[in-house]
Amino acid sequence: xxxxxxxxxxxxxxxxxxxxxxxxxxxxxxxxxxxxxxxxxxxxxxxxxxxxxxxxxxxxxxxxxxxxxxxxxxxxxxxxxxxxxxxxxxxxxxxxxxxxxxxxxxxxxxxxxxxxxxxxxxxxxxxxxxxxxxxxxxxxxxxxxxxxxxxxxxxxxxxxxxxxxxxxxxxxxxxxxxxxxxxxxxxxxxxxxxxxxxxxxxxxxxxxxxxxxxxxxxxxxxxxxxxxxxxxxxxxxxxxxxxxxxxxxxxxxxxxxxxxxxxxxxxxxxxxxxxxxxxxxxxxxxxx
Amino acid sequence: xxxxxxxxxxxxxxxxxxxxxxxxxxxxxxxxxxxxxxxxxxxxxxxxxxxxxxxxxxxxxxxxxxxxxxxxxxxxxxxxxxxxxxxxxxxxxxxxxxxxxxxxxxxxxxxxxxxxxxxxxxxxxxxxxxxxxxxxxxxxxxxxxxxxxxxxxxxxxxxxxxxxxxxxxxxxxxxxxxxxxxxxxxxxxxxxxxxxxxxxxxxxxxxxxxxxxxxxxxxxxxxxxxxxxxxxxxxxxxxxxxxxxxxxxxxxxxxxxxxxxxxxxxxxxxxxxxxxxxxxxxxxxxxxxxxxxxxxxxxxxxxxxxxxxxxxxxxxxxxxxxxxxxxxxxxxxxxx
Lengths: 288, 336
Known about the structure:
The complex is a heterodimer of chains A (288) and B (336).
Chain A (H helix, E strand, L loop, with lengths): L3 H33 L1 E4 L4 E5 L3 H8 L3 H31 L5 H9 L6 H12 L6 H8 L7 H4 L1 H26 L3 H9 L4 H28 L4 H5 L10 H11 L3 H31 L1
Antiparallel strand pairs in A: 1-2
Helix pairs in contact in A: 1-13, 2-13, 3-8, 3-10, 3-12, 5-8, 8-10, 9-10, 10-13, 12-13
Chain B lengths: L3 E10 L2 E11 L4 E5 L6 H9 L6 E6 L2 E2 L10 E4 L11 H11 L4 H14 L15 H13 L5 E5 L7 H18 L2 E6 L2 H7 L2 E6 L2 E6 L1 H6 L4 H6 L6 E4 L1 H5 L4 E4 L4 E4 L7 E10 L3 E7 L7 E6 L9 E6 L5 E3 L5 E2 L1
Parallel strand pairs in B: 3-8, 3-9, 6-7, 7-8
Antiparallel strand pairs in B: 1-2, 1-4, 4-5, 9-10, 11-12, 12-18, 13-17, 14-15, 14-17, 15-16, 18-19
């Protein structure tokens, strides 16, 4: 495995994949960087030359920038809280021996297989529609005024939809973690006089910390770029314009590729700040 | 106090009866060892006493109080697990303090008890380490420390030494024995190793398929095994069991002779049985000679004190000590 010869061979064999992946990443990145310094308006004259840092300044000084960062963080944070809390509870439940366990587990995982666009449409039209949605019927059944989810509770609605999609992922990772817990530890804690709540707090939760870390890291990376759910529901209105959506609007709705690209560079920076930040708080969990 | 009485205790998993109705009394301060081959139900029996499994029928009395349906924490028993079951995210100090914290004891008293336990177990220097940073023997000590700080009515040990290497096992065996002499607390110890059973126990309980084959002091079991199973299980090397004509000559279905009750001679006609040496294991203090082709059993094992110049292929002559022959009937029970 570690002879000089085999290492050289390994490098040769991996080279095509590495080159391909590098190209895949570097070409769009370079193009984004390039466009972000150009005045590029495809419908209004095309590439109009060098723009310096104008695009960057305009993007952050726009009144929509900070609200979009706020919306992004609220959605990411909200979904993380909901999926981790419910994920732990669901994992605990699924770990119990219950009848029809196999089917229940498949059902729990099912939402993960539904495409984001489809699930958002289903939620929007079947559940959250203020006239014909299931929730509206439910509200009326109890004599309450139906909620116009998409306009009155837009951020909450999107958090709900996205959480529904990501809950299976969190549950699955946390379930495997719970299953890897040494039963003798729980029995020892039981003999030591720890009740169910103490056992959860002192034994199960610390054991899950690493899995929770993994869930948070992976989900954050994907949640920062949530797009389809917003596109098919609120179209960025009612305070749901995230950074990703703002970039999309700049490029495609305002037809300003330069400005959008500058926004893209900010998104890269934001993602990296969040990633470093997360790595630092939770990184020591992964070392242990 | 720590008198544990099992009355007609039965355990079934579905249709499988793991432990048929069983009676057993463990006196206060006694060191009882449950021993038997794997799958004999000894661990299950211990877990029934601990309360980690529910009994199917029967009663468990701890200090004359019915504990059959008591939750484990209220039985005031402490258990040391085979895997030690230490809490990996807690320091040694917090591991040992855990049962006391759960009992809501005040901080100063907890610290005092943890220090005392750590001092008794040579763990003082390791109190701030995590279990992952300790060796097997040290982890074992932490597990014992966690058990003794509670001052339980009885200790339960579930094969606590089986994960240690041989040298450490002997050391820990002595430490646990000494701890028992010092604390005088009832201890129940489960093992499949009959050497541990012989050396540590006040009372050995030999289990086989969930039944108690025999219970008694180590030497009782060694000198007068009640049946063939106990005869074959207690003692190392194992007792030689011989069936057929030779047994019939003694008026039994089978006879048993312990390796040390056979004398070995290298002179022609120097004994009533003869055979060929297969392997001679030289331990220095003793030599175990495995003899084949005796026409009595596959192998006869003979223990010779000190050195003996036997090697593979030598023909030897054997003489059993007549008064040390154990006789068993067709059902395997001892004939007096």
